[in-house]
Amino acid sequence: MAEELFKDGKLSGTGEYVDGERQGRWKFYYRNGQLKADVAYSKGQLDGDCTWYREGGGLLQRGAFRDGQQNGFWQRWHSTGELMDEGRYDVGRKVGDWVTYAPDGSETKRKTFK
Question: Which CATH architecture has domain 2-113?
Answer without folding.
Answer: Single Sheet (2.20)
